[in-house]
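Chapter review: from sequence to fold.
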Amino acid sequence: MRFLMPVIFSIVALGSTSVSAQGYSDEYNKCLNTSYGQIETVKKCVDKELKSQEKKLKKHYENYLKNSGDNQSYVEQQHKIWQNRVNQQCYLKVTTSLLKVKQNKCILEMTMERAYYYQMR
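The token string follows.
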């Protein structure tokens, strides 16, 4: 059991850093580190980073779409499918500010992953 716990924590840590390796901004990390767990502050941090990542996604998507040639309609269709997946996975019936933060973090991570996908294409 002693040896199992470090392995579990390592796996969790690796899984949670896969998105951050793709590009959380330094400003976002600093904002979270100084939020002291205050939900409104965390929400502001996440919302600001989400806006930034959405701009990045748009830029890389438009570039990818422009370079896709005859496959533009396929790329557009795949992007719409991705947007539907975000809606299904992240949008919950929000009843508290904590759930709203969780929802926005979900959208942020999926947006970052998709921006990275288009960037690497």
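Two observations follow directly from the output. Residues 1-21 have pLDDT under 50 and may be disordered. Residues 14 and 21 are 10 Å apart (CA to CA).
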